[in-house]
Amino acid sequence: MNELAKRIVRGLLLVLCGAAISLLILSIRKTGQVQSKLNEVASQLSYLQDSTAMIQSDLHTMEENIETTLEEESSLIEDYSIQVSSVNLQEQTYDVDITILPKEYTEATQTSIYFGTRAYNLELQGLVYKGEATLSLKNNYDGNVTVLFTNGEKRSTEVLHNYVGFPTQLATTLSGGLANASDSYKDGTLEFDGQVSYELDGHNMFDFTSFSLVAEVNGENVYDYDLIRETGGAKVQAEAETQLQTEADIDASGEDSPNDAGDENIDAEEEQTADQVINPQADDAGADSKEQTADDTGTAAATEAAQQEEENLPDLPDASQTDVALQEVSVSGLGGEHDIHFLSPAVEGNSIKIYLKAATQDGYTFVFTLWEGSFTEDDNARAQEYLDGSYNQTVVDANGNIWNKAE
Q: Looking at residue 201, what is its pLDDT?
C-alpha cells in the first residue's frame, strides 16, 4: 500500500506541475498580447496627436487667410506708393512723392496723409491722389502713417501698417560684424586677425561703385580690401569672355568685328583708366615700398602684408589682352565673409579702426565701424576695444554732410 500511495502522490505532483507550466505559458502569451495591444494603442495615440497638431496648424493658417482677406476687402486703398525723391543730410530731411489709389472715391473726396501727427494734403490727378512731403531723418514713421478720406461729414482712415520709412532703410543699408578677433605683439609690431561678415543692401535706391574693408592706424590705411572686386571680378571676367566668344564667332563667319574700329581709338588715358580699374593699388604699393626705411620694421611688415593681400586678389582680364575696355563694376547688394589680417607698428597710443566703406554712384558714402581701439603697452600689450555700438554707422553725402544711425 505504501508503494501505491507513493506512486499516486508522484502522479498528482506531475499533473500539478504540468498544469502550473501550462498556466505559466498561457499567462506569458496573454502578457505578450496585452503588451502588443498597449503598443498599438500608444501608436494610435501618437497618430491622433500628430493629426490634431496638423489640424490646428491648418485652422491657424485658415484663420490668418480669412483675416487677411477681410482686411483687404475692408481696406479703403487699392494700392499706394511712397518714394524718396531727394535727401538733404545738411538739413537732416528727405522728400517723398506720394501716390494713393483708393478703391472708391468721388470728385468731392478730400484725401490727406499723416506722417505721425503732421498732415499733407493730396490732390486728385486722374485716378490717383498725389502729393509731396518733407520728412525728418530723425523719425522713421514705421507703421505710423495714416491716410484720411473725407466725404462731407464722413471721415474714414486707414493706417499703413506695413510702411517702412527711409531712415530705417538707411540704417540697414550697410551692416557687419567682427568675429574671432585676436591681436598679438612681437618685435615692435602688432598683428591683428579676425573674420568679418558683411551685408550691403541698396533697398532699390542705391547702386554701389565701391565697397571695401579697411583698417586704419592713426588715420592711415594699413589694410584696404576691395569686396566688390572679390565678388564682382568674376562678373567682369564672364562678360569679357562672352565678348571674346562673340568676336570669335564673328571672325569665323568672315564678318568684321564691330569693335575693331573702336579698339584703335582707345587713347592712352583710357588705357591708364582701365589699368587702374584692374589694379588700383599697384602704384600706391610701389610708391610705399620705395619710401620704406630699414629702421621702420612695423611699417615694412604692414606693407608686406598689404602686398601679399594684393597678390591673393583674383585676376581680372587685362584690357590689352582681351580687347575689352573694362567698365566700372557696380552692385546694388552684396553679402558674405572675409578674413582680415594686418600688421602695424606697435606704438603706445596708436588708434586703430576697422570698418566697412561703401560709395554710391550719386555721391553717398556709407561707413560701418566694426572695431575701434588703441594700442596700450600693458602686461599683455594688446589693442583695447572702445567702440560705442550706438554710433557704428554713418552716411556722408557728396558735400560732406553726415547722418549718424544713433541720431
A: 93
